[in-house]
Amino acid sequence: MKRKFIIILFIVLSSCSNLEYDKSNVENSKWIHLAIKNLTDVIVYDIFSPPVASRVYTYPSIAAYEIIRLKDTVNYLSLSSQLKGLNSIPKPQENIDFNIAAIEAIRIIGKKLIFSEDRYEKFFEINYDEIHKNIPNKIIRNSKKYAREVSDHIIEWSSKDNYAQTRTFPKYTIINEPDFWKPTPPDYMDGIEPHWNKIRTMVIDSCSQFSAKDPYPFSLDKKSEFYKQLIEVYDITNNLSDEQVEIAKFWDCNPYVSHHKGHAMFATKKITPGGHWINICRIAAEKANSNDIESLRTYSLVSISLFDAFISCWDDKWKTIVVRPETVINEYIDEDWLPLLQTPPFPEYTSGHSVISRSAAIMLTEIYGDNFQFDDTSELEFGLPVRSYNSFIQASEEAAISRLYGGIHYEMAITNGVSQGEKIGEFITNKLTTLKK
User: Fold this and answer.
1) Which residues contact 13 (CB under 8 A, 6 or more apart)?
2) Residue range 80-109: average pLDDT?
3) Taking a C-beta distance cutoff of 8 angstroms, is the pair 353, 399 a contact?
């Protein structure tokens, strides 16, 4: 009798430590994509600048990937020890659903990095029952507890990237010389993130490892390279085709565009350029039928590529402090000229779109291949049409040239920015290993 009791007890305990349940719903990659889209929506609402937005995407994506890969450690490798200062996440206990934990980590870390917490939480509250359907309460509790442990680990790591310190640094002081960047109309905003090069990089050795070659020196000599590129901006924007206008607006990705009518002023909010590429991650993952692990691998690797690309680009911007075309054209050529797009509030060289788009495209090509055709629906919700591409590189090239059509960049910032982004993207793809060979 005693022996029977022991056997029954053993069976009960064994079943408790290996709770069985239907995982088909929670393992649907749509919850990963929706959680990241929710993060994008709040980034838009809170009007984060492009560099800061890249940081908001990166830490939740890394945490979620580090958790989800525990489902398949035979094939997927950790990013710990591959990223600067990142140590291994805490080890999981029994009865944890890694999908629940990954989504919860996105919730916890994302909430830490944005402002509108109630708006951010609404997605998780509305979808709570659906996400957790068929999952035993014990599994949910354990998974959320583990997500908190991992999130605290990642938040602690993020706190050492110098972001908090840069919030206390002084604003850029304007230099009243014709060749230096100055705030532009209509709002004449202060320069954004002049100290972003102090942020700790993820993979690249330093902010200046892939600095672009020097820009052409400022000159109003009509034979100078600078003046030729200035006139190119003026001439092209005065003779844009409908296709060029569409391309410029499609890739505008200005998180805050102000509109002035008489004494009235209102603003429109849009995704950042990094946010556009994060959405392309979703488009690619869904087309490729990527599972939950592969989807989060994509988000984490592309966000890392964006993160380091912004640091490198912003180092060049605030090192060279090149004046924008709008300032020079209005001062010396045509005081009534306006660019098609509103000039962003930071120096011109190099082009952020060119750098970060190429870096992201290199990583996406590494994951999904060279000739990955896709329809980019990222701007539909902002009233713009779908655009189609035969590859990520083609999309990145269009993103780059869109800045010339928009009247906000010289050709040198675009060409050298693409080269800079390519070097960053290739360096990161060669440095990071997430798949076992």
Assistant:
1) none
2) 98
3) yes
Q: How far is CA 235 from the centre of its chain?
A: 33
Q: How many CB atoms lie within 10 A of CB 13?
A: 10
DSSP state for residue 335 in the 8-state scheme: T
The answer to whether residues 274 and 53 touch, using CB atoms and an 8 Å cutoff, is yes
Question: In this model, does residue 383 exceed pLDDT 60?
Answer: yes
What is d(CA 44, CA 278) in angstroms, rounded to the nearest whole number? 13
Tell me how crowded residue 160 is: count the other CB atoms within 10 A of its CB. Answer: 12
Buried b (16+ CB within 10 A) or exposed e, 35-70: bbbbbbbbbbebebbbbbbbbbbbbbbbbbbbbbbb
Q: Phi then psi for 194, rounded to 5 degrees?
A: -70, -15
3-state secondary structure of 285: helix
Whether the pLDDT of residue 48 is over 50: the answer is yes
Can you give the C-alpha Rg of the chain in angstroms? Answer: 24
pLDDT at 18: 62
Alpha-helical regions (H) of 18-79:
30-46, 50-68
Q: How confident is the model at residue 13 (pLDDT cuts 50, 70, 90)?
A: very low
> Nearest 5 degrees, angle CA 45-CA 243-CA 421?
60
| Domains of the chain with bracketed CATH | 25-164 (1.20.144), 176-431 (1.10.606.20)
Please, which residues have CB within 8 angstroms of residue 139's CB and are 6 or more apart in sequence? Answer: 19, 21, 95, 96, 97, 100
List, for residues 309-322, the tens digit of each pLDDT value.
999 999 999 999 99
**What is the DSSP-derived secondary structure letter of residue 203?**
S
- Evaluate whether 277 touches 376 at the Cβ level (below 8 Å): no
- In tens, the pLDDT along 328-360 reads 999 999 999 999 999 999 999 999 999 999 999
Strands 264-268 and 374-376: unpaired
d(CA 172, CA 51): 16
pLDDT band at 38 (very low <50, low <70, confident <90, very high): very high
Please state the rounded mean pLDDT for residues 276-284.
99
Tokens of 154: 């990642």
* pLDDT in the model for residue 11: 40
